Amino acid sequence: MKRTFVMAGALALAALTMPAKADKLDDIIASGTLRCAVVLDFPPMGFRDENNQPVGFDVDYCRDLAKALGVEAEIVETTFPERIPALMSGRVDVAVASTSDTLERAKTVGFTIPYYAFENAVVANEKSGIESWEDMKGKTIGATAGTYEAIWIEGRLKEWGAGEFRPYQNQADVFLALSQGQIDATVSTVEVAEANVKSGKFPGIRIVDKAPMVPDYVGLITLREEYGLINYMNLFINQQVRTGRYQELYRKWVGDGEPADLTVKGVYR
Amino acid sequence: MFNYTFRWNQALKSLPQMLEGALVTMEIAILSMVIGIAIAIVLTLFRLSPLRPLRAVAAVWVEIARNTPALFQIYMVHFGLGSFGIHLTPYLSLLIGIAYNNAGYLTENFRGALTAIPETQTRAARSLGMTSLQAFRHVVMPQMLRIAFLPMTNQMVWAILMTSLGAVVAMNSDLYGVANDLNARTFRTFEIFAIAAVIFYLITKTITISARLLAARLFRY
Predict the structure, then answer these.
(1) Position B71 in a domain
(2) Is residue A133 domain-shared with residue A111, that is, in the same domain?
(3) Mean pLDDT across B170-175
(4) What is the CATH number of the domain that holds A86?
(5) Share of chain B above pLDDT 90, in %
(6) Quick check: is B138 in a domain?
(7) Scanning every residue of chain B, which has its alpha carbon at the shortest distance from the alpha carbon of A176?
(8) Which residue of A105, A229, B146, B165 could cross-link A25, Cys pair, CB 3.0 to 4.6 Å?
(9) Distance from CA of A256 to the nearest CA of B (A)
(10) Which one of A151, A166, A225 has the shortest CB-CB distance to B90?
(11) Which of A144, A149, A180 should be substituted to probe chain B, the one whose Cβ sees the most B Cβ atoms within 10 Å?
(12) Any CB–CB contact under 8 A between A31 and chain B?
C-alpha cells in the first residue's frame, strides 16, 4: 500500500518535472496555428486573387483542417521543390500542396490517404500539329519541374528515344513557352489546363487529348514519423468526403461535375 | 528542429549523373568565357573609339550587363526573344545569357587594366609608325590581358555559378538541373544539394588555384 503510494507520487513528480513528450499534433494545438505549405502557382488548387490573397482548393482545404483542429491557419507559399525543405526545417507543419504519393517520396515524408486525384491532359500549341498524346513523340515537350506529370512525360520521351523534355520552374512559364511556340505541347492536370486555356492569357493553345496515366493521387504530407498527425489527417480527409465538403470545394474551385473517386477498387487504402 | 536522417549511400548512387551534369556546367562556363572575352575586347575597342555610336553601344551593353540581375538577362534571352518568335534552346539561352553578362563585366575589367597602362606607351608605339589598331594589338592588349587575368578568373568562377540559373529557362542537363530533377524524384533534398555544392566548390577551387599557378608561370618578368 505504502509502496504504491510512493510510486504514484514518483510518477506524478516525474510528470511535472520531465518535459512532456508532445508530438506535432500537440504542438499545433498548443501553438494555436497550423502552418500549411501551399503552392500558389497552381490554379485552381492554389493561386492569388486580385487582392493578392492566397485562394484556391488547397488554401480552403488547409483552412478546413485548421478549423477542425480549432486553430488558426497560416498559409506559407512554397514552390514545388521547396515543400520538403520547408517541412524538414520546421517552417511549416504540413504541406497541402497537391503532392503525388509516389513510393520513392514516401521514403522521406509521411503521406496521408489521397485527398484529391488529378486527370492529366495534353495541351498543345495549335501550330504543332499534335492531335493526340502519341503525337508528342519526337516533339519538344515542357512541364512544371518536379511534378508528377513532368516525371511521367520525361519517362515517355526517354522510352520513345525521340523528342526533348524541358522542365520549367513554374506553371506560368510552361504556358508562356507553349503560347510562344518554344515548346510544342505540355502535360498538365485537366484543372490547370482548363483554367489556363480559359484565362485567355495564353493565345494559340488548346487541350487536345487526355494523358493516359494512372490518376495522379495526391496526399497531404508531413514528417514521416508524425503518426498522430497523419492519423488525424486521414480521418479528416474521410470526413471531408463524408460530409460533402469535398464536393462543395470541387464545385467552388474546379467546376460542375463530380470530383474524382478517391478509392482504388480491389484494395484497402 | 531538424528532423532528417541522411542517407548518403542512396544519394551517392546519383553521383555519376551529377558528374555528367558538372561537365555540361563547365562546358557552358568555358564557352561563355571565350565568347565573353572576345566580345569584351571588341567593346573595349568601341570604348576607345572616337565614334560616338560605337561608344554608346559599349556603354549600354556594360550598363545593362552590370546593373540588372543575371537571372533577368538569361530569362530575357529565352522568353524575351521568344515573344519575337526567336526560339532558342535552353542550352543556347543560358550560354548567350552568361556570355552577355561576362562580356559586360570583362569590359569593365579591361577598362581598369587599361588605366594601369601609361598612355605614353601608345604614343611611343604610334611614333614608331604603328597604326592605332596595331598599337592596341601589339602593345596595349597583351599588357591589358595580363593585368586583367586574375580578375578574369573571378568572372570564370561567377560563370560556373551562374549556370545554376539555367533552371529558369528549363535547362536540365547542367549540374544544378540534374540535382533539381533528382530532388523532385526522390525528395532527398539535403543530400543531393550538398553533393552539388561540393562539386561546385571543387570546380571553382580548381579553377582559381590553376589560374594562379598559370599566372605565376606565364607572367614572370
Answers:
(1) yes
(2) no
(3) 93
(4) 3.40.190.10
(5) 75
(6) yes
(7) B79
(8) A229
(9) 32
(10) A166
(11) A180
(12) no
Structural domain of residue B214, as residue ranges? 13-218
Amino acid found at A234: N
Return the pLDDT at B181: 87
**What integer pLDDT is reported at residue A17 of this predicted model?**
54
A150 close to B (CB below 8 A): yes
Confidence of residue B141 (pLDDT cuts 50, 70, 90): confident
Residue A184 lies in a domain: yes
Complex ipTM, two decimals?
0.81
How many interface pairs between A and B have CB atoms less than 8 angstroms apart? Answer: 83
CB A150 within 8 Å of CB A126? no
Weakly modelled stretches of chain A, pLDDT under 50? none
Subunit contact A104:B187, Cβ cutoff 8 A: yes
In 3D space, the residue among A250, A233, A252, A248 whose CA is nearest the CA of residue A96 turns out to be A233
B6–chain A Cβ distance below 8 A for any pair:
no
Whether A141 is in a domain gets the answer yes
CATH number at residue B207: 1.10.3720.10
Range of the structural domain that residue A82 is part of: 20-118+216-253
Task: Supply the pLDDT for residue A196.
Answer: 87
Q: What is the pLDDT of residue B23?
A: 96
Please name the helix (run of DSSP H) or strand (run of DSSP E) that holds residue A84, with its range, or none.
helix A83-88
Distance from CA of B30 to the nearest CA of A (A): 23
B2 assigned to some structural domain: no
Q: Tell me whether A167 touches chain B (CB under 8 Å).
A: yes
> CB within 8 A of A98, min separation 6: which ones?
A39, A42, A45, A46, A58, A116, A118, A218
What is chain B's length?
A: 221
Residue B133 lies in a domain: yes
Q: Strands of A109-118's sheet, edge to edge? A: A72-77, A33-38, A94-100, A216-223, A109-118
Q: Which pLDDT belongs to residue A67?
A: 96
Q: What is the pLDDT of residue A217?
A: 93
Kindly state whether residues A112 and A243 are assigned to the same domain. Answer: yes
Alpha carbon distance B160, A38 (integer Å): 32
Q: What are phi and psi of A6, to 5 degrees?
A: -65, -40
Number of domains in chain B: 1
Among B4, B187, B189, B193, the strongest candidate for a mutation testing the A interface, having the largest count of A CBs within 10 A, is: B187
Task: Give a yes or no: residue A265 inside a domain.
Answer: no
The answer on A221 and A111 residing in a single domain is yes
Q: What is the pLDDT of residue A207?
A: 93
Phi and psi torsions of B171, nearest 5°: -75, 125
Cell 601609361 belongs to residue = B118
Encode pLDDT of B31-88 as tens digits.
Answer: 999 999 999 999 999 998 899 999 999 999 999 999 999 999 999 999 999 989 899 9
**What does the pLDDT read at residue A59?**
96
A36 touches chain B (CB under 8 A): no
